[in-house]
Amino acid sequence: MPPRLLLIDATGLLFRAYFSLPPFTAPDGTPVGAVYGLVRMLLKLFRDVPATESAVVFDAGARTFRNDTYPAYKAHRPPPPDDLKPQFGLAIAAAQATAAPVFCQAGFEGDDIIATLAAQAAAVGHTATILTSDRDILQLLSPTVTVIIPKKNDFTTYTPESFEAEYGFGVERFTDFKALMGDPSDNIPGVAGIGEKTAAHLVSAYGRLEQLYANLDLVKPEGVRLKLKAGREQAFLFRELVTLRLDAPVAYDFSARRLPDFGSARLQEMLAHYGFSRLRDDAASLGDLEQREPGGAGGSPAVLA
After folding, report:
1. At a CB cut-off of 8 Å and minimum separation 6, what does 175 contact?
2. What does the DSSP 8-state code read for residue 126?
3. Across the chain, how many H-helices and E-strands are there?
4. Structure confidence by residue, pLDDT tens digits, 22-73
5. How far apart are CA 299 and CA 113, in angstroms?
6. Which of helix, strand or coil describes residue 102?
7. Which residues pair with 4 in a beta bridge?
8. Which end of the chain is flanked by fewer CB atoms within 10 Å, N or C?
9. Which of these CATH numbers, 3.40.1190.10, 3.40.50.970, 1.10.150.20, 3.50.30.40, describes 166-242?
10. Where are the domains of the chain?
11. Which residues 6+ apart lie within 8 Å of 177 measured at CB?
12. Integer distance in angstroms from the first to the last C-alpha of the chain?
C-alpha cells in the first residue's frame, strides 16, 4: 500500500467544536471549549484513520486573492464570536505542540493549502485522505484522494464513484456545477435563475462550461437558455472563484516528522493548564504515532461529534 497523507481542515473542525459543545473556560478564565473539541476530534481521527503522514491546516483569517477578484466574496459573513477569536491561536499552538506538520498561509484559504499538499502527495506516489466540512474539497476527489465529511452523528466518505452516484455527474464537472448554482455560504450568487437541479442537469447533459456554452442553442427551455446567455461572464468568473489552487506557497517535507506525538511534554503541559485532565490522559495513551506500526489503527473514522 502506498503511503497515505491525512489532511485535516482544522479551522472547520474548530468551528464545528465551538457550535457543538457548551462553552467552558480554563482555570484562568480563558475560553477553551472549541480547543477541547478540536483536540478530542483529532484524537478520534488518528485512532481510526490509517495514515503514514499528516498535516493540520488552518485558515489565516485574512483577505485572499479571491477578494481581489470578487470583492463580495464572503463579504456577508459576520466576524467570529468574541469567545472564539482567542481560541484560533490556542488551537494552532495545540496542533504545533504535537510536532506534526501545521500549515497556515496568508493570502490563501485552508482549502487551497489542502489542495496543494494533496497534489504534492500525488506527485510522489502517495494517496491522501481529507477531513473537512467544506464540500468545495470534493473537487479534489480522484483515484488517490478520498474525502471524509463529518455530519451530526455520522460521516460520509467520498470517492469519485460515490460522488457520481450522489450527484449524477463526474467530479471533474463539480466546479462548473457550483459556478452555475452559486454558493450562498461564500456569497457567490451563481447564474441568476439557475438553481441546483437545473445546474446538475446542465452539467450532466452538456459537460463543462465550455461545452455548455458551445451548445447553448440546444439548451431548452428557452428561459434557461436566455439566463445562461445573460450570465455567461459571471459563470466563468464564479468557476474561477470556486476552483481550488494547487500552487499555494507551501511544501510538505516527506522526510521529516509526519505524524503527531500526542504524548509530547509540550502538549501534556498545555492540556493540564487548560484543565483538560481526562483529555490529557487520552492523549498520553495515544502517544507518539511515529512509534506505532505504519498505517495507523485501521478501520473507519469514529463519529466526530
Report:
1. 139, 239, 242, 243
2. -
3. 13, 6
4. 989 999 999 999 999 999 999 999 998 889 999 999 998 778 999 999 999 9
5. 27
6. strand
7. 127
8. N
9. 1.10.150.20
10. 4-163+245-291, 166-242
11. 167, 169, 199, 200, 203
12. 30
**Fold designation for 4-163+245-291:** Rossmann fold (3.40.50)
CB-based burial of residue 109 (10 Å sphere; 0-12 exposed, 13-18 middle, 19+ buried)? Answer: buried
Among candidates 168, 214, 223, which has minimal Cα distance to 191?
223
| Spatial strand order in the sheet of 127-131 | 102-103, 53-57, 4-9, 127-131, 145-150, 155-158
- Regarding beta strands 145-150 and 155-158, do their DSSP bridges make them parallel or antiparallel, or are they unpaired? antiparallel
Q: Is the model's pLDDT at 305 over the cut of 70?
A: no
Kindly state the average pLDDT of the residues 258-280.
96
81-106 pLDDT tens trace: 999 999 999 999 999 999 999 999 99
Q: What are phi and psi of 266, to 5 degrees?
A: -65, -45
What percentage of the chain reaches a pLDDT higher than 70?
A: 95
Alpha carbon distance 211, 108 (integer Å): 30
Strands 102-103 and 145-150: unpaired
Task: Say yes or no: do domains 4-163+245-291 and 166-242 share a fold.
Answer: no
Does residue 201 have a pLDDT over 60?
yes
Cell representation of residue 239: 468557476
Residue 279 pLDDT greater than 90, yes or no: yes
Q: Which residues contact 178 (CB under 8 A, 6 or more apart)?
A: 136, 188, 190, 238, 239, 242
**Whether 112 contacts 248, CB under 8 Å:** yes
- The amino acid occupying position 15 is F
Please, which residues have CB within 8 angstroms of residue 174's CB and are 6 or more apart in sequence? 138, 139, 163, 167
Residue 85: count of CB within 10 angstroms of its CB: 12
Q: Across all residues in the chain, what is the average pLDDT?
A: 92
Mean pLDDT for the stretch of residues 214-235? 97
